[in-house]
Amino acid sequence: MADSTAFRQVAAEVYYSVDSFATAGPEAVAMIKRIALESPRKRCRICFHPGPEATAQEMLIAMAGRSYVRPHRHFGKSETLTVLEGSATALLFGESGEVTRRVPMGPHGQGRTFFYRMPEGIFHTLDFESDIFVYLETTTGPFDPAKSEGAAWAPPESDPEAGFDFIRGLDA
Predict the structure, then answer these.
(1) 86, 106 in Cβ contact below 8 A?
(2) What per-residue confidence (pLDDT) applies to 172?
(3) How many whole angstroms separate alpha carbon 33 and alpha carbon 95?
(4) pLDDT over 70, % of the chain
(5) pLDDT digits 0-9 by tens, 53-78
(6) Checking phi first, is residue 62 left (phi over 0); if not, alpha (psi -120 to 50) or beta?
(7) All domains of the chain, ordered by start, with CATH?
(8) Is the pLDDT of residue 1 over 60?
(9) How many CA atoms lie within 13 Å of 153's alpha carbon, on the beta-carbon side?
(10) 54 CB contacts (<8 Å, ≥6 apart)?
(11) With 0-12 CB in 10 A as exposed, 13-18 as middle and 19+ as buried, what is 86?
(12) What element of type H or E holds 102?
């Protein structure tokens, strides 16, 4: 069965569902994977909530293997992540950048953790291991960038090569 939900693009890598009853199937996943692989930041998301002001925020996200998400933490909210495709390791950090936990992640049935709920205040990121990683992320809104903090001890996302090298260097 084909996807029936339509999407509107609001930024280079960000789409919103235009339907109040939203669905996602193989076509939606194929779309975000294609865009993630072609985009400069190697990512794409579909937001299924109506807008940044929504109290429940649900996003289908694809990240290419060389993507970099700066370690960060959220204040006043948690987030959940459910893996649909690919593999990555969730990395949790202490205040000064030491890795405190590594959680290998993959889809259900493949012997890895497929779900987490990240409490507020913990620095975290993902080390993408497969060519593409697709997941569902949920959190509370409204979206407010001031309620997140990028780790000062990690490269900024504006330097993805340094970020990728930083993440890979954590295994050394």
Answers:
(1) yes
(2) 58
(3) 33
(4) 97
(5) 999 999 999 999 989 999 999 999 99
(6) beta
(7) 7-169 (2.60.120.10)
(8) no
(9) 12
(10) 141, 142
(11) buried
(12) strand 99-105
